[in-house]
Amino acid sequence: MVDRCVTWLSVGVLTAGMSAAVLAGAGAAIADDTGSTGTGGANTSESAKPADSEDDSDTAETDAPDSEVDDVAEEEPAEEEEPAEEEPVEESEEPVVEEEEQPAPDKDPQKVADKGSDRDDDAGDAAEEETAPAPAVKAVVATQTRSKEQPAVKVEDTVEAVVETAVEPVVKETAVDLEEPVAEAVAFASAPATAAISATAMAPRIPGIIRFIGTLVFNLYGVATRLFGGPPILPANSTVTVRSSTLRIDCACEDGEGVEVPADWYIPQGAEENPPERMIYLQHGFLAAGPWYSHTAAALAEQTNSIVVAPSITSNFFAADACWLGAAPMHEGMAKLFDADNTALVDSAAAAGYAGPIPDRVVLMGHSLGGGAVSGVAGYMVQRETIDRLAGVVLLDGVGLDDPERMTDALRLVPDEIPIYQLAAPVYFWNNFGVGLDALVEARPDTFVGVTLVGGSHVDAMRGGNPIIQFAQELVAGFSTPQNSAAARMLMVGWVNDMFAGNQDEGIYLEPGEEFSFETPRGEASVVALPNSLTKWFPFNFLKPLVPLMDGIFTFDPHCVASSVGSRTAGSCQASIAA
Length: 579
Description:
CATH architecture of the largest domain: 3-Layer(aba) Sandwich
Strand order of the largest sheet: 4-5-7-6-8-9-10-11-13-12
Low-confidence stretches: 1-203, 556-579
Order of helices and strands: HHHHHEEEHHEEEHEHHEHEHEHEHHEEH
Largest sheet: 10 strands, mixed
Number of helices: 16
Distance between the termini: 16 Å
Mean pLDDT: 73
CATH superfamily of the largest domain: Alpha/Beta hydrolase fold, catalytic domain
Number of domains: 2
CATH topology of the largest domain: Rossmann fold
């Protein structure tokens, strides 16, 4: 979230592209009569919703009373406007329709000229007296089933139904005995029918040009961050060794494929002779990189005697395979790292110069959007039955962008005996106005879930050795006080040690809303237990009403996207380009 302003430029480009796509879709839906068929209408419907929602459409089509459906089906195509005497209709071809139902006294019934039929002279007179024709809406023929009592109706493949707009549609839940197939004319209104559809299915396709430009921007940004960010830099007098390699994550459109990402390994002193039994998986936030957390990672490795791995994963949400930091396929791929038969961590550590065993127990830790990512990983570890390896989860002002409920659902899957804590800043723009806090409190309402640093910043826990990067991130997100930076480190270390030990001896644990002050090497700091009402003033806070709209852009990739705790969906895609 640190450089979140960069995304606003992408939002502008994306909005223009998506607006053009919407207008194009609307034009396709209002095709001329000569080019529209029943099949064409089906294709237009498929572009707006998946095939599994056809049952909902069928239900909506059969909701109207039988008499109203038969009246609509009786109409002749609007394309045939020749005089009735030129095309007489045989008496045997007319549908048998019961006319017992009378319209309501306060509404005029729909009047349509019955061409070629002399069966009802009054209907012909009424049609001649019609002076203000009602607007027409498109009618698409759909083959359905009907009950035995309904007469067979013969209609063309496509009809133009003249419908009076003053007559409101009647929608009912009706149980129908479906036996024999029959063709019925169904008029679709301008607004599409609503149905319970997953976020994956509703995700619109990104125009290729937008995907190309967006990926190019993220590639350039990735080059710039590597150039100016540099490698991880350890604090002075650190006893930790850091080396870098790459890590294979099985996130791709096809099984057996994956992406290679940079990874920094922090090995505590004496690990070769006495291999640690603890590991911390540390995930950076949106538009950040692993080396920006080098001081934080080194402190964790040294003070918890843990091997710390910090991968750098692209924030390119234009990736066609959805293998970016905020997407569920990436979360699932990260969870696969802890499968018993996955050697990716061992291979990466060996390439970084560590030949010892990889610890069996792990604490997942993530900052900002990385917190939302490790929440998804924890949920997938439950599904993959590797949750016994998880000692706990620490969210460093963690947030989820696309849908807070996904983060809540993932955290809710984790057994209560596995602790999950949030080290938060007061609610403001850079932590997405507390959506991550709300998600955790909702998932675990009756237990301790963390604290807020009084006067804290979104980057309190984000400590690195590059002074340019450190200054830039604090300039953007708000400067950290020395005592809050020290307090954040103390809280992380205490919670992690307790998670591995299975107790609460070192960390700070409070009742909801309780405030507590303690001494740090840089002065006194104060925290308030979650949930609480602490907020932080920031110039961008006025944008709060727009944040949900911006969050929506992170759910639009349709190719390989899955829900954060759901299964993958099939689809073709192109290779992801990591930024």
